[in-house]
């Protein structure tokens, strides 16, 4: 499915020729578009009369993909139109981006200019998540192109400041050029030269707005009060220009005069300035917000007053490990071995956030120590993330939401503290996680990411370029014993109920989105989902807390009657362990009144099941959790030992599930996975099994993506068992 964008007509109350002069100033680079690195002219054509000017440029973008964009500008000065066509060259076999823009004269006022823009994005192959990625990418794209009006207006103001408020229209040359015509052409050329001056001549004039895009006046440089000791700068702050030094002093003085409380050190003030390109107003705003946040949450005292829970100490697979070649403290995170869902369910989001804050505070402390040890300023740390073992379980929706909130808090309050992020052994599922998370990461931070798939980190340009051989961790085939916990699955016995988390004032995602239900023998629990648009996607995530159940999905063209406790048909029961609702009337017949749309799935006690179903028809879908009766042994009348043990465990004929469901529109999600993709671990827990090694095989996703386009109904089910 192709994502399309069509902008409303935008009107500039300026003549077409002046808009063209402003537009040309965007090339070869534009400081207001940081990702626009450079552009080269590939081909150029100009008609003899100068009315038609066609130019093709290859633009280089500093983003993950696509990196090269080809633009074709066709200017018709006679008709006063500019048509812009763009498409990507990099990764064109996987991603197709097309854009068309048009500048033209307003039909009712020839001194005004209209602008129209349309774009399409088609991700041909992305492991079955094409529609999801398309929507995220288009959302990012539309947020970026909306800046186009601001950019044109910026250059219009720049022209106005230079006294250029008029650019003459194109006029056809006479058959026999006279001296007057020649003079007119020279005047027009001179006007255009003023409107689009040589970049080399404007280098000094244009450098100031780049460092201060907000337009605020820069501080005067050179007064005695705007000087710091040269040795102090070299020892603790690093290289600073006179302008940057003055910005630091001004912001520090402002904080001393207005802020009541602890004043950050110069190194931390400098981080906020660097994160905002030394724009004092923006840095001051974000720093004030951060100082207020630190005071409210007592972050300054977190290392002295807060002890991480034992669950974090045992199962959070991260810790500090020596330093890199630049002297930065090195933090190692074995994300692929960490049970993020288990940690959230056992601790809550707030405890995880607090732990991450303590890690950042410890990082600041270690930077200060390393600055003293190495005798040079060290203001950031390096993070090494090992993704071996990363699988679909890590894409658990509440866990991803918790991760996004942590990223948001860290980005706002610890800017420019990450010097480098080394991501190792990235599996095939990583692009999905990266697509979900990367839009929330600052552009400057993303440039510090280095990603290695498989064993690429062992080759040239790999880990040895950044970390000394003698401190490479043993689990990466190094020689140094790493004391970082190995993680593993959090036992479900450590999970806490929503009530327990609420009593401790923790904002657990499952407190609001998860529901509990009891399943009895002869009384399944059922929920109703109404689907209006075919090809919508029903997603679910549930834990079998007690007993064994059978999970079914049914479809009906008519809605079941609302549940009533005393009715002979549908009824509901409320128990301390959760609700129990039956929707399928006892007089309904399977195949006549409703139909089964998925094969029954038997789920054992302790399993966590996540999956989705692409609906084929509109109507009413019923998700059912049913008590699973142990089948009798066919070979003998004597019961098996496993059957006896199971019957003792569920002697009350009652099961319990915790579940969450959500419906996603067909335009937001495309499920291209095998019908049953699952993986389990043994009853003793152990390490998590990647979907790459599951029965269906994650390597089949590419083939499944093709087959999904030919089928209206498909599902994805992932199962995990742990104790």
TrEMBL record:
Q: Which Gene3D superfamilies match?
A: CRAL-TRIO lipid binding domain, GOLD domain
SMART domains assigned to the protein according to its UniProt record, in alphabetical order: CRAL_TRIO_N, SEC14
Q: Report domain CRAL-TRIO positions.
A: 308-484
Q: Which residues form the PRELI/MSF1 domain?
A: 3-164
Q: Which GO terms describe its molecular function?
A: RIG-I binding
Its cellular-component GO annotations read:
cytosol; Golgi apparatus
One GO BP on record is:
innate immune response
Q: Could you tell me the keywords of this UniProt record?
A: Cytoplasm, Golgi apparatus, Immunity, Innate immunity, Phosphoprotein, Signal transduction inhibitor
Q: What does this protein do?
A: May play a role in innate immunity by inhibiting the antiviral RIG-I signaling pathway. In this pathway, functions as a negative regulator of RIGI, the cytoplasmic sensor of viral nucleic acids. Prevents the interaction of RIGI with MAVS/IPS1, an important step in signal propagation. May also regulate the SLC18A3 and SLC5A7 cholinergic transporters.
On subunit structure and binding partners, the annotation says: Interacts with RIGI (via tandem CARD domain); the interaction is direct. Interacts (via GOLD domain) with SLC18A3; the interaction is direct. Interacts with SLC5A7 (via GOLD domain); the interaction is direct.
Q: Which protein, by its recorded name, is this?
A: SEC14-like protein 1
Organism from which the protein derives: Camelus ferus (Wild bactrian camel)
Recite the lineage of the species.
Answer: Eukaryota, Metazoa, Chordata, Craniata, Vertebrata
Give the gene that encodes this protein.
Answer: SEC14L1
